Amino acid sequence: MRRRTLLIALASVVAVLALAAGAWSLGSVSGPVSGPEAGRGMAVKSPAPAPVPKAEDMPPMTLTGDTRYVALGDSFAAGMGAGDEHGGCVRSAESSYPAVFAADTGVRLLHNAACSGATTDDLVNKQLWALNGDVDLVSVSIGGNDLGVAALATACEHGPTTECKNDFNKAVDTIGVLTDRLSATYQAIAEAAPNARIVVTGYPLLFELPATNNPEFATTAAVNTATAALDADAESAVTRQQERGVKIWYVPVSFTNHGVGSAKPWVNRKGLAAYHPTAAGYREYARAFEAALAGRH
């Protein structure tokens, strides 16, 4: 039910953005309005939600110096925004969440093959070289560039502009096909590392939402809801692969009380790393990853 609920929330944000921007045409998502805009005459009819299978809980995993670990993904796995990045992939050797996790647990980080800007296609075509039958653990952070979450946040930084509207439309269109892309990507990873446990890390909501009468509410809600839909697609794709017998699990990451707009944000606001985690944000990623593997949900 979670994915359908988030698509319904998207419909609410679409309605808010439509009012804010002057009746945008975003007809590709529909559903009854829920949340803070409910009861304001913006309801849209939709079919009854279909049940979504619940993902299996992750059993604890013993982590030792012999655990062979590989990280895959995009800028959120590369560590963009951590402060010590370098190279064409803008990768942090010390402050990315894979590096922090490896340092905290003592596992052997064989490769961090993640690259800033990577899409699902890039991962399949350029990162699977790091995997083989000897790998025990794989982390994956991918999908954000397919959906364009950081680009959407940047485009909507100054309100419901035409660029913001266009990027939001692209995100809505991508949501419809993203589960298939992610599922195919996870399957390719499983085939390249047949003996590994695969852990998919989600994306945190970037903003602390202001009051609904705040001029920034519509655009910040749009970015958060698009991110939540991306996470729901990832979780649905994980469930598909679990049903095929793949050892794969989804781990959510929360920046609650530390998003943009909070007193102590874990999100960069300026420069090339805008709307990516800070070093503190990546430490939270590592903490959530380690806690999930230890069975502390």
Automatic annotation (TrEMBL):
Disulfide partners: 89-115, 156-164
UniProt region (Disordered), positions on chain: 35-60
Protein's GO biological process: triglyceride catabolic process
InterPro entries: SEST-like, SGNH_hydro, SGNH_hydro_sf
UniProt entry keywords in alphabetical sequence: Disulfide bond, Hydrolase, Signal
Domain SGNH hydrolase-type esterase stretches: 71-283
Residues of the active site: 75 (nucleophile), 276
Statement: the UniProt record of this protein carries the keyword Disulfide bond: yes
GO molecular function ontology, one term from the record: triacylglycerol lipase activity
Domain of life: Bacteria
Range of residues in the leader sequence: 1-20
Protein name according to UniProt: SGNH/GDSL hydrolase family protein
